[in-house]
Amino acid sequence: MKILITGGAGYIGSIVTEMCLAAGDDVTVYDNLSTGHRRAVPADARFVEGDVSDQERLAGVFRETGTEAVIHMAGFIEAGESMRDPGKYFRNNTCRPVSLLEAMVEAGVGEILFSSTAAVYGNPVTELLDEDHPREPTNAYGESKLLFERLLDWYDRVHGIRHAALRYFNAAGATGERGEDHRPETHLIPLILQTALGRRGRIDIFGTDYPTPDGTCIRDYIHIADLGQAHLLALRSLERGSIHYNLGNGRGYSVREVIDSVRRVTGRDFPVVESGRRAGDPGVLVASSERISAELGWQPQHPSLDEIVASAWEWHQSHPDGYQE
Ligand code: UFG
Questions:
Q1: Any ligand 1 atom below 6 A from CB of 172
Q2: pLDDT, averaged in runs of 10, over the chain (325 residues)
Q3: 128 and 46, same domain (yes or no)
Q4: Based on the domain organization, do 165 and 213 belong to the same domain?
Q5: Does ligand 1 lie within 6 Å of residue 146's CB atom?
Q6: Quick check: CB of 247 below 6 Å from ligand 1?
Q7: What is the CA(260)–ligand 1 centre distance, in A?
Q8: Ligand 1: distance of its center to the CA of 166 in Å?
Q9: Which residue's C-alpha comes closest to atom 26 of ligand 1?
Q10: What single DSSP character describes residue 126?
């Protein structure tokens, strides 16, 4: 397929690009490099530096490349930051990519995969979150993604653009060549690994008074390669119509359990400090991914947390400065 990937220079985007190329797709990465890394983009992908708000440019690229489908991954992703600067999230995750949808209408591109998030659900009312769970985001980040999901519904109803909204739980881990390099880094696993490497002095636990067995937040960590595989499957199922899928392992780990896993995998110890809660964090987020398993046959191949952490550890050791020269 001929695919355009916005945000293809980011952590998840560059790995999905790598996997689409390996599956024989023709890939154009479209990224403004505001947070992505040019060096993360695989050499076999076409690269266009541009913004999702540039409708004319996008429509031109769609026509030149014969794009058949878009994977829209560009966006800001920090729940904590969204509670200090919600405007950044609503502007960039909800408003500006309307131009992307308009460019698709203009150029006749009829399919889009959208990187959505578990943060659309808010605090769980059932143990496992399935796709029909109420959507009551506890942070502006989740709301900004939920609003874009709703825009996608309207572009389907009015213009017939089919979409799959993939609600990621906590993507983690690495492939041999590509891994997680956010600046600043805010995600738990890379932060602990940088601490294990001695590049940070300590890891903070954000909140020890959650109603969970050890008092710390529980998340469902999913290996980046399993996440990528779901994109390949979803892309090839869009002719069936628009859909929402959760992507997680169905097993939650607390912050303390993740720290223990890093100690086990790396054989290193490091300072851990108990700090206050981070605004907007739900206590528990664990997926039911039954729907994508039943409908597309998706099965995570690397569900073990230690395996996920080990792949990230390998990448951090071989890329201690991330993608920096
Ligand atoms: N945490 C700490 N200390 C840190 C960093 C994080 O205790 O230094 C905790 C957080 O409070 C949270 C957990 O570790 O409980 C995971 O935090 P991350 O920042 O790694 O991930 P989030 O769960 O906040 O968000 C991530 C992605 C989102 C995605 C979401 C879905 O950033 O894009 O997972 O669950 F939507």
A1: no
A2: 98 98 98 97 98 98 98 96 97 98 98 98 94 97 98 98 98 96 95 96 98 97 98 96 97 98 98 96 95 98 98 96 87
A3: yes
A4: no
A5: no
A6: no
A7: 17
A8: 18
A9: 170
A10: S
**Residue in 135, 194, 195, 219 to alter for ligand 1 test, most ligand atoms within 8 A of Cβ:** 219
Provide DSSP, 280-321: T--SEE-B--HHHHHHH----S---HHHHHHHHHHHHHH-TT
In this structure, the answer to whether residues 93 and 149 fall within a common structural domain is: yes
pLDDT of residue 166: 98
Q: Give the strand order in the sheet containing 2-6.
A: 46-49, 26-31, 2-6, 69-72, 111-117, 162-168, 243-247
Inter-axis angle of helices 55-65 and 98-107, to 10 degrees? 40
Q: How many A from CA of 88 to the centre of ligand 1?
A: 19
State the residue range of the domain holding 284. Answer: 188-219+251-318
CATH of the domain at 74: 3.40.50.720
Distance CA 26, CA 140 (A): 34
Does residue 163 have its Cβ closer than 6 Å to ligand 1? no
Structure confidence at residue 316 (pLDDT) = 96
Q: Give the catalytic positions in this structure.
A: 141
Same domain, 243 and 102: yes
Check if 20 has its Cβ closer than 6 Å to any atom of ligand 1: no
CA 63 to chain centre: 27
pLDDT of residue 325: 67
Ligand 1, atom 19: nearest CA belongs to which residue? 187
pLDDT (tens digit per residue) in 21-33:
999 999 999 999 9
